[in-house]
Amino acid sequence: MMKKSYRPILLLLFAAFEILIISCAPEACLEETESLVKASLYDNTTKRLRSPDSLTLYGLNHETVKLYDRSRGVQPVLFPLDLSSDNCTFVIKIDSVIDTITFRYTSKPRLVSKECGYTFYFNLTDTPFYTRNAIDRIYTANRKITTYNEENLRIFY
Amino acid sequence: MRRTCVFFISLLLFFHSVSARAQDTIEFPLKIRIGMDVAGPAISYYNRDRLSLEGVLSLDRNEKMAYVLEGGYLKFNYSQYNYDYRTEGVFMRAGVNFNLLKPETSTGKYWAGVGLRYGLSLFSTEVPFFRKENYWGTYNSSLPGRTSAGHFIEVSPGVRTELFKNLSIGWSVRLRLLISGGGGRDLRPIHFPGFGNSGKITNAGINYYIVWEIPFKTKKVIRIPETEEEEEEETPVEGLPGNEVPQNAFPY
Known about the structure:
Low-confidence stretches of chain A: none
Structural class of chain A: mainly beta
Strand content of chain A: 35-45%
CATH architecture of the domain at 24-78 and 89-122 and 149-182 and 190-223 in chain B: Beta Barrel
Oligomer: heterodimer
Largest interface: A-B, 39 and 42 residues
């Protein structure tokens, strides 16, 4: 019969090996890696969240690649910022009425994880510039653009 | 009154001598140990992107505890599809080892126990290339070299045994908890010397040591006989008085 004094040592070594094996197992990239401007759409009359019947979004001079193409029920709208520049402009079509929104920002690199690598976080330096065809007002809720699911803008239309 | 005092003193001396006769003493050698890790160079032989060298110096305080100082060097390169990473630096760990073996089992030749360490690492990191893709296209960038300091604590259970006179081998599993990896919240290091993968707050590793031992002192350790409670507990047989044991209870 094993002496009682050896049992804690064996249990400790067994537990340590279990942790070693678990920590050595390769892992996949499961985290969110893209920092997007998250804009909620509000009805300007009722001041409540409302998705447009049709929404189209693309970058200026990138009309062939659309982020949303006459999409229904979009909430929130996600804007990817241009990494190679400190500003970018989007064309947004809400219920067939066209507007443009321009963002100005600074960026800084950030490690997501060993598995996912690096991304950029942004900081909006100005309130976005926008035309007022369908859009009535844009309120900036949070200037920091991260990978977290946090509301950055409120678009009243 | 005087006779009463003499009686009690005699009684005390008698029980003391009986109890002293019941104990036993063993000679326990206290040692200085100088060792090197062979797991790191072995891994480096197969993985050219990693060069790891590590040594250990320990001093026995008594039969149960030893002071430990470890130090090493790591050069590590890592690449995957969207970035390259390089780190190089030195580290030290200071702490204690506790021997969980009884002195009569250990006899200075065997060790099974647990170590506790504080670790400090000074290193440089560089990201020569990273790539990010999104709607607007592919963007390539790099992060220049920077120097950082990392701190961590470590629990290291392990075993060691004497292979030849004054030469031991042993291994220990390293369970590490990151205190700070340097680099702030945005650019914490992916991997740094002494800790390993710092993408996570906890990490584990293993060391395999060859140790040269230098005895410097012999300590007399009183061997306390095992009490009844430490032996295997016997379940009383139903129907028998508490102190009685059936004749066939011990077949050997």
